[in-house]
C-alpha cells in the first residue's frame, strides 16, 4: 500500500509540473512563432529558409507540449455517467480488430452476459483500453493471441482480465511500468501506463499485472459496480 501511495504522489507531482511547464512554455513559444512567421514572409531575406526551419522545430515543441497537457489533463473534466463498462471494452475490441487481424493476432473474448454497470467516465476508460491494447499489440508484434474476459465478483465489482502472448516483462520492468515516463521502447513515451493507473485510481479500482518474459502479460482491472443510489 505504501508503494502505491508513493506512486500516486509522484503522479500528482508529475501532473502538476506538466501543466505548469506546458503553459509557461507555450506563451513565449507563441510569440517566437509569430515573429518567425513574420520574418519568413520577407522572401528577399537570405535567412527566410532558416526561419522556416525554426518554425518547424517550434511545431515539434508544440507537439511535445500537447502530450504533456494530455498527461496533465484536469481530473474532472466531465460529469460521471452510469454505463456498462463491457460495452466500452467491446467497442474497443472492434476498433482494434483490423489491426489484430493484419498482424495475425487471435482474439478470444469471454465477456459476461450480465451487464457490469459502473459509475465513472466512459472516455477515460476508453483511453485505458486503448493504452492496454496498444501495449499488447506492441508486445506481440505479429502472430500471437489476446484473451479478454470479464466477471462479476460478489455483485460488488467487475473484474476485467486482458492477457497477451507478447514479449512479457521482467520483474523489474513490472515494478516500474506505471512510473511516469518509464519506457523500454525506442519510440515509447512512458505515458500510457501512468495515465491508465491514474484513471483506474480515479474510479476507485485496482490494476494488477503479472508477466513472464517470452510468455506474455496479464492485466487485471477491478472496478466497483455502481451503487444503488448512483444508478
Ligand atoms: P510505452 O508504451 O510508451 O513504452 P507505457 O506507459 O504504455 O509506455 O508502458 C510502459 C512500459 O511497460 C513499456 O515500455 C513496456 O516495457 C511495459 N509494458 C506495458 N505493457 C506491456 C505488455 N503488455 N507487454 C510487455 N511490456 C509491457
Ligand atoms: Mg504504451
Question: Can you give me a brief rundown of this structure?
Answer:
By secondary structure, this protein is α+β, with helices and mostly antiparallel strands.
Q: Mind explaining what this structure looks like?
A:
With 231 residues, the protein is of the alpha+beta class. The chain is 51% helix and 21% strand. It has six helices and seven strands, in the order ααβαββαββααββ. The strands form two sheets. The chain has a five-stranded mixed sheet with strand order 2-4-5-7-6, covered by helices on one side. Helix 1 runs antiparallel to helix 2 (48-72). The radius of gyration is 21 Å and the shape is globular. Bound molecules: adenosine-5'-diphosphate (ADP) and magnesium ion (MG). Residues 20-227 form the Histidine kinase domain. This is histidine kinase. It comes from Kurthia gibsonii.
